[in-house]
Each structure stands twice: as C-alpha cells, then as structure tokens.
Design brief:
With 145 residues, the protein is of the alpha+beta class. The protein has a domain of 101 residues. It contains 3 helices and 3 strands. The protein has a 3-stranded antiparallel beta sheet. The longest helix is centred in the last third of the chain and has 27 residues. The radius of gyration is 32 Å and the shape is rod-shaped. The mean pLDDT is 83.
Amino acid sequence: MSSSPASPLKRLWFRWKSLKLPWRRRWLAGSDLLGNTFWEFKDSLNANRFRRIVNYNPRAHYSDIHITPQWHQWLRHTRATPPSLTEQRLDLTRQQQLKQLARLADERWAAKPSFLDDPRKMAQAGPATLPRDSGGYEGGRAGEG
C-alpha cells in the first residue's frame, strides 16, 4: 500500500532503533505498509509488562489512518510477536482476492431472477391452457385409422 519501499538509510535507521539497548527508553517493534511505526517501552507502573504504542505516518491525514487487525492484536498484547511485512503483504493479497470473489458472487446473485422482481418486467410464458403434447392430433383432426 505504500508508494515506494523504504530507502536503505531508513531501513538502517529502523534496524538501529529496533535494538533493545539498556539505555533506550523505547524501541521499534516494526512498521506497517502505510508507514506507521509501532513502538514498545517499559511500563513505569508495572515493570513486568511492556507498553505498546503506534506513531502514525506524519504524511497521512488522520482520516486516512488504518491499523490492520494484526497490529491491533499486537498493541493489545493478544499477539506476542509483531507481524512481519511479508505477513502484511499476504493479508493484503488475501483481502483483494476476497473482494474479487465477493464481486463475482454478487454478479451471479444479480443475474438470477428473484420472486421480489416486478412480474410485468419478467419474461412472460405462454398461457398454461395450451396443450404441450398434441396427443396424436395433428391440425385439430383425429388421425385416421
């Protein structure tokens, strides 16, 4: 979803910030495809638990910010490890395939006639009183014989 991959300098900065060095107050856990960065730091009240936050992409408008379910799980300590970029890309392709399959299913559903449709717009069959089988009669006359 991001327009371009991270530059080598930015990747180096991400790698440096992700090191859990003793003097660091917080460290980088990862980033998503939209450019949001996710951070982890020690909680001052509970030393056994780490706090997790997200820093939104500064170039994105607040209404355009979207956090994926995988990152929501990580932020809420439901998931132990942060999602990788390949996992995020695979989830994005899965969502695109799901949208395409839903569109095809909607097209198939729309092509089928419905009982709720207006009967005047539906193709009318001939009257049901006409015999389909002539019963041996041709031209309204009984066969000789």
